[in-house]
Amino acid sequence: ARAGDLAAASATNEQILALAPGNATALRNLAVIARDQGDLEAALVWAQQGIAANAGNVAEVKPLYQVAAEVYQLQGNLPEAIVTYEQLRQIDPNDTATLQVLLNFYMQQGEDARVVEIAQALSTLEPTNFLHPWQAAQALIRLNRPQDALPYAQQALTLATPEQQPAIDALIQQISGG
């Protein structure tokens, strides 16, 4: 595949599957090759076959879920991409990369309750990152829950750099009625 011979790479991975049905690496490779060749349906079939064959093995299925989610995004199927990332979240709830992708999707869709939930999870996993409580505070404001937003905004203020603090301070003033 690295040499550009995708047909040979596919054949090699299919030979691996003949010897070791369900091999997650071979199935992921086939999914990636199909994706890169523009055959998104085949990519999904390979990824889903790998997920089914390796259920319960987080290390094996994570890359397969990621490929499937990428393919759904390439298809413009954001709802299925979100479902796939949520499935990935179920098997690895502490994967900050997955949580960040979900947070961005929910922010784009205006699903503020989900933004708060994911921002809270990220705050727990990355307690020194001001952005997570800041995002939770902003979502809570949009949900018309300013008093719930205040502690998050204050937490963001304590974690933020001096350049970031004025915007957070302005939000705190707005919440506090000042």
What are its keywords?
single chain, 178 residues, mainly alpha, 10 helices, 0% strand
List the helices and strands and how they pair.
Layout: H1 6-19, H2 24-36, H3 40-53, H4 58-74, H5 78-91, H6 96-109, H7 112-125, H8 131-142, H9 146-159, H10 165-176
Helix pairs in contact: 1-2, 2-3, 2-4, 3-4, 4-5, 5-6, 6-7, 7-8, 8-9, 9-10
Question: Can I get a quick summary?
Answer:
It contains ten helices and no strands. The protein is mostly helical and 178 residues long.
Structural features, described:
Helix 6 runs antiparallel to helix 7. It contains 10 helices and no strands. The relative contact order is 0.07. The termini are far apart. Helix content is 78%, strand content 0%. With 178 residues, the protein is mainly alpha-helical.
Radius of gyration: 21 Å
Q: Whole-number average pLDDT?
A: 95
Multimeric organization: single chain
Stretches with pLDDT under 50, minimum 5 residues = none
**Which percent range describes the beta-strand content?**
under 5%
What string gives the helices and strands in order?
Answer: HHHHHHHHHH
Give me the secondary-structure category.
Answer: mainly alpha
Distance N terminus to C terminus?
Answer: 61 Å
The helical percent reads: over 70%
Number of helices: 10
